[in-house]
C-alpha cells in the first residue's frame, strides 16, 4: 500500500505539472489540439490514480476540470483567461492536496466542499453554456435524419444520443468500441459507419480503428456517460428528442448478464497484466481475486468460486483461471503503458537506466581488479622479489585507478539532470504575473536540455524565479510606455542556459527599460553604502553591480512581485554560496541581462591554489578573473589603502597575509603576485606570495568548532595529500 | 480457435478477439466470395468487424446473439455482390 501510495504522490505531481504546462500552451494557442489532448490525458490519468485510493473529493476535483475541458474541446466554451485562471487554481489546489497527502496521508478537512466550490467556479467561468439539449447541435443532426422506419419507431422520444469516434489506435489500449456499444443501456439504435471511405482490403490496417458509432439510448444521459467514462475524449453524449410520429418501439436487444460478466472478467485479466512494482502487483492481485469472486457469486457459479480460491495463490494460475472463465478472451495487443512524463520528479531522483547500468558494470570491473590484491599479498608473503612485486602492485593500481576515475564520473553523472527542471515553473509565473500587471510578455526559453548537478539545480531554482520576476516587474514597461518609446507592446523575456568553460551559465534578459545607473548611484549614496565620491568615480558597469548590495532597490513602489530590495542580494548570495557568480549588463531603454555562472557540479570545485606565509590556500576559480605579476612600484599607496591598475581599471589592493593576520615580508624590490578577484559586487586585487597550480578538489565544509571560522569555505585534500584551506573571500574581507 | 476457416466460409465461435484480425484479413483476401457463420459468435471485436465490412463479406448463418443480430449482421450484405 505504502509503495503504491508513494508512487501515486510522485505521479500526481508529475501529472499536475504536465497539465499546467499543457494548459499554458492551450491558453496561448486555443487551437492547439495537441495541448488540449495532453491536458486531458494528464487529468484523466490523475483521476484514475485518485480512484485507487479513498479520496473522493480529489477525484471529484479533477473530474470537474475534465468536464470543463470537455466543454472546451467540444466547442461549447472557449478557453478564456478566466477559465484558464480557474483551471490553474484547480491544479494548484491539487498540488497542495498532494503535499498534504504526502505529509499526513489524508486530505484536509472540508476537501469535499472545496472540490464542489471549484466545480461551481468552473461552471461559472464556462459562462453557463453547458449544453444539454443538443437538438440543434450539428454533430447530432443525424438524429433528425433517421430513416422513416427508425423515425416511426423512436419518434417523439426523449433519448440520449451518442457520437462515438474511437481513436484510430484505440485497440492498442485494449478498447473494443463495438463491445462498449453493446453495453450501452437500453440501446435503441446503433449505426456503425466507416469514418472515411473504405480503402481496399489490401490497404486496410486491421489494427487501426476505422469505424465510428452513433447510438441512441433510452437511458438517462449520466448513465450513458458513466459507460463511456474511460474514453471521454472520443465520445459526445447529448440528450435529444427524436422528431416525427411515434409508433410501437421494438424491444431493444439486451446484453445478458453473461456478457457483462465476460467483459468484467476480461478487464480483470487486463489489470493482472499491468506491470508495476511487487507491492502494486500484489495489491492488484488481491483486488482482482475479490472482483472475480463477486462476479462468480453473482453468476451463481459456486464451483468456479472454489476453483478461484485454489488459483488465487499463484499469479500465473490466477491469470490462467480468469482467462478460462472469460472464454480465452485476450486483449488485442499488449497494453501500451502510459508514457512516462519527461520531467523528473521534484523530490525523487530519477536515474537514467543506462547510467545505472554503467555504474553496475564499473562496480563489476572493480571487483575483478580487486581480486588481484590477495594474490599480490600472497606473493609478498612468499618472498617474491621486490621489483616484481612493485610491478604487480603498480599494474593493479593503474587498473583500479582508471576504474575509480570512471566510477567517480559515473556517480557524478547520476546526479546530473537537465535544467528543464528549474525552467518548468517559469511559463506559469510569466503568465500569471503579466496578466496581473497588465503587461504583454512573451517568454522565450532555450537550453533547457543543458545539464547540471542536482544540487546546482536546487540552488538555481529560487534565484531564477527572482530574476524573471524582477524583469517582469521592473524591467518590462507598461504597454503605453513601450508604445511611447517606439517599442512593440509585447515584451520578450529570454531565459537562456548553456554550458560554458566555467560551468553552467543561465542568462535572463529582457527588452525592457534597463537600469538607470545614475539612480542606482543615488540610492546607494542615500543608503550610505558608498560615498558621493566613490559613486561619482564609478563606471556605469560598476554602478550597476551595486544592485546586488543588500537593501538596494531602484523600484519606485513595492509590488507583490518584487522591489523589496531583497531579491538581487539573495540571488547573489545563493549563487556565490554554490561557488558561482553573477554578472549584470544593462542599457537604458533597451533592456537588462543578468547572467548566473554556476559550476556544473558542486562536489568538485576547481580552485586556484596560492601560497601565503608558507601555507596553501584555495580560491574558487569562478571568482578569479585574472592573475599577473605586478611591479612593486606600480602599486600606489594612499595612507594604508593600496590600489593597482589592472587592465585599465583601478582596483583596491589587499594582501592575503594581512587578511589572514600573518606578518608581512618587507621587500622593496621585484614584483608581487596579484590575483584579480571578482566578487560579484566588487572587484579587487589580491596579493599572494606565489601562484600554484589549479586543482579540482572535493570541497568539505568546515564542521564542529571550525564551522565558526567564516573566512573559510571548507577544506580539501590535494592530490599529494596536503591539506588545502579554501577561502571564502567575501567573509574574509 | 474461435474462428475456423472452412473453405469460403469462416465460422465464428464464442468471443472472437482482435488477435484473429490478420488471419481473417488474409483469408478474406484469398476467398472469392467470403461468407461468415456467426451462429455461435457471442462477441465480435471491432477489428474483425471492419475487416468483414471492407471485404463485403456476406452472412451465411445469422448470429444468435441479439446484439450482433440487431446491429452488426445487417451491415454485412446478405446476398453476394
UniProtKB/TrEMBL annotation, chain A:
Residues 604-733 form the CheW-like domain. The keyword Phosphoprotein applies. It holds the Pfam family Hpt. Keywords: ATP-binding, Chemotaxis, Kinase, Nucleotide-binding, Phosphoprotein, Transferase, Two-component regulatory system. Its EC number is 2.7.13.3. GO terms for molecular function: protein histidine kinase activity. SUPFAM superfamilies: ATPase domain of HSP90 chaperone/DNA topoisomerase II/histidine kinase, CheW-like, Histidine-containing phosphotransfer domain, HPT domain, Homodimeric domain of signal transducing histidine kinase. InterPro entries: Bact_Chemotaxis_CheA, CheA-like_dim, CheA-like_homodim_sf, CheW-like_dom_sf, CheW-lke_dom, HATPase_C_sf, HATPase_dom, His_kinase_dom. Residues 1-104 form the HPt domain. It is an enzyme of class 2 (transferase). Residues 399-602 form the Histidine kinase domain. It catalyses: ATP + protein L-histidine = ADP + protein N-phospho-L-histidine. The modification Phosphohistidine is found at residue 44. Involved in the transmission of sensory signals from the chemoreceptors to the flagellar motors. CheA is autophosphorylated; it can transfer its phosphate group to either CheB or CheY. This is Chemotaxis protein CheA. It comes from Azospirillum rugosum.
From TrEMBL, chain B:
It comes from the Bacteria. This is STAS domain-containing protein.
Amino acid at each position: 500500500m505504502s509503495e503504491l501510495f508513494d508512487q501515486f504522490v510522485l505521479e500526481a505531481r508529475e501529472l499536475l505539472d504536465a497539465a499546467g504546462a499543457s494548459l499554458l500552451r492551450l491558453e496561448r494557442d486555443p487551437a492547439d489540439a495537441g495541448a488540449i489532448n495532453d491536458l486531458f490525458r494528464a487529468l484523466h490519468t490523475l483521476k484514475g490514480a485518485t480512484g485507487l485510493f479513498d479520496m473522493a473529493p480529489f477525484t471529484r476535483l479533477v473530474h470537474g476540470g475534465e468536464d470543463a475541458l470537455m466543454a472546451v474541446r467540444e466547442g461549447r466554451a472557449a478557453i478564456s483567461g478566466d477559465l484558464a485562471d480557474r483551471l490553474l487554481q484547480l491544479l494548484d489546489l491539487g498540488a497542495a492536496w498532494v503535499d498534504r497527502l504526502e505529509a499526513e496521508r489524508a486530505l484536509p478537512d472540508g476537501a469535499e466542499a472545496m472540490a464542489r466550490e471549484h466545480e461551481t467556479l468552473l461552471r461559472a467561468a464556462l459562462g453557463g453554456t453547458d449544453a444539454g439539449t443538443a437538438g440543434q447541435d450539428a454533430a447530432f443532426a443525424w438524429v433528425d435524419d433517421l430513416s422513416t422506419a427508425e423515425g416511426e419507431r423512436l419518434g417523439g422520444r426523449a433519448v440520449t444520443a451518442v457520437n462515438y469516434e474511437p481513436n484510430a489506435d484505440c485497440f492498442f489500449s485494449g478498447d473494443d468500441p463495438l463491445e462498449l456499444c453493446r453495453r450501452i443501456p437500453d440501446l435503441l439504435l446503433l449505426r456503425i459507419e466507416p469514418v472515411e471511405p473504405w480503402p481496399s482490403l489490401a490497404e486496410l490496417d486491421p489494427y487501426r480503428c476505422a469505424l465510428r458509432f452513433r447510438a441512441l439510448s433510452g437511458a438517462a444521459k449520466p448513465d450513458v456517460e458513466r459507460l463511456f467514462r474511460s474514453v471521454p475524449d472520443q465520445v459526445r453524449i447529448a440528450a435529444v428528442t427524436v422528431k416525427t410520429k411515434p409508433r410501437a418501439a421494438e424491444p431493444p436487444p439486451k446484453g445478458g448478464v453473461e456478457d457483462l460478466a465476460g467483459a468484467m472478467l476480461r478487464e480483470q485479466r487486463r489489470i493482472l497484466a499491468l506491470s508495476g512494482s511487487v507491492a502494486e502487483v500484489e495489491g492488484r492481485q488481491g483486488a482482482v481475486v475479490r472482483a472475480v469472486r463477486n462476479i462468480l457469486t453473482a453468476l451463481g457459479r459456486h464451483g468456479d468460486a472454489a476453483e478461484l480460491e485454489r488459483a488465487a495463490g499463484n499469479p500465473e494460475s490466477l491469470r490462467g483461471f480468469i482467462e478460462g472463465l472469460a472464454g480465452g478472451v485476450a486483449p488485442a495487443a499488449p497494453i501500451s503503458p502510459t508514457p512516462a512524463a519527461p520531467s523528473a520528479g521534484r523530490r525523487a531522483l530519477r536515474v537514467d537506466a543506462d547510467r545505472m547500468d554503467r555504474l553496475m558494470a564499473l562496480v563489476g570491473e572493480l571487483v575483478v581488479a580487486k581480486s588481484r590484491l590477495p594474490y599480490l599479498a600472497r606473493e609478498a608473503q612468499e618472498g617474491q622479489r621486490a621489483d616484481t612485486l612493485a610491478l604487480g602492485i603498480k599494474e593493479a593500481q593503474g587498473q583500479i585507478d582508471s576504474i575509480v576515475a570512471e566510477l567517480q564520473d559515473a556517480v557524478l553523472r547520476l546526479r546530473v539532470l537537465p535544467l528543464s527542471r528549474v525552467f518548468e515553473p517559469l511559463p506559469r509565473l510569466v503568465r500569471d504575473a503579466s496578466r496581473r500587471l497588465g503587461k504583454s510578455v512573451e517568454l522565450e526559453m532555450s537550453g533547457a536540455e543543458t545539464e547540471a548537478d542536482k544540487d546546482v539545480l536546487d540552488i538555481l531554482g529560487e534565484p531564477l524565479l527572482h530574476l524573471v520576476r524582477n524583469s517582469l516587474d521592473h524591467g518590462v514597461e507598461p504597454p503605453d510606455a513601450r508604445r511611447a518609446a517606439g517599442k512593440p507592446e509585447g515584451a520578450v523575456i529570454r531565459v537562456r542556459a548553456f554550458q560554458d568553460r566555467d560551468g553552467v551559465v543561465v542568462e535572463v534578459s529582457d527588452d525592457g527599460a534597463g537600469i538607470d545607473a545614475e539612480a542606482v548611484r543615488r540610492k546607494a549614496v542615500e543608503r550610505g553604502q558608498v560615498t558621493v565620491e566613490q559613486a561619482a568615480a564609478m563606471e556605469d558597469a560598476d554602478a550597476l553591480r551595486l544592485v546586488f548590495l543588500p537593501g538596494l532597490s531602484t523600484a519606485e513602489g513595492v509590488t507583490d512581485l518584487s522591489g523589496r530590495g531583497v531579491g538581487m542580494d539573495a540571488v547573489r548570495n545563493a549563487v556565490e554560496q554554490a561557488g558561482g557568480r553573477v554578472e549584470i549588463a544593462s542599457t537604458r531603454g533597451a533592456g537588462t541581462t543578468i547572467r548566473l555562472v554556476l559550476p556544473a557540479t558542486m562536489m568538485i570545485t576547481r580552485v586556484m591554489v596560492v601560497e601565503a606565509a608558507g601555507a596553501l590556500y584555495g580560491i574558487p576559480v569562478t571568482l578569479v578573473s585574472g592573475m599577473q605579476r605586478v611591479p612593486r612600484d606600480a602599486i600606489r599607496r594612499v595612507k594604508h589603502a593600496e590600489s593597482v591598475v589592472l587592465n585599465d581599471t583601478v582596483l583596491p589592493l589587499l594582501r592575503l597575509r594581512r587578511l589572514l593576520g600573518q606578518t608581512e615580508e618587507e621587500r622593496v624590490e621585484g614584483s608581487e603576485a596579484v590575483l584579480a578577484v571578482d566578487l560579484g559586487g566588487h572587484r579587487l586585487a589580491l596579493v599572494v606570495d606565489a601562484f600554484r597550480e589549479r586543482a579540482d578538489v572535493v570541497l568539505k565544509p568546515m564542521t564542529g568548532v571550525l564551522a565558526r571560522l567564516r573566512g573559510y569555505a571548507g577544506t580539501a585534500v590535494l592530490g599529494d595529500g596536503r591539506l588545502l584551506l579554501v577561502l571564502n573571500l567575501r567573509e574574509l574581507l | 480457435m474461435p474462428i475456423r476457416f472452412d473453405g469460403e466460409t469462416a465460422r465464428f465461435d464464442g468471443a472472437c478477439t482482435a488477435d484473429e484480425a490478420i488471419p481473417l484479413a488474409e483469408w478474406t483476401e484469398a476467398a472469392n466470395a467470403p461468407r461468415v457463420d456467426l451462429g455461435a459468435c457471442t462477441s465480435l471485436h471491432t477489428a474483425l468487424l471492419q475487416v468483414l465490412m471492407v471485404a463485403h463479406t456476406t452472412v451465411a448463418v445469422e448470429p444468435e446473439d441479439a446484439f450482433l443480430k440487431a446491429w452488426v449482421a445487417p451491415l454485412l450484405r446478405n446476398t453476394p455482390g
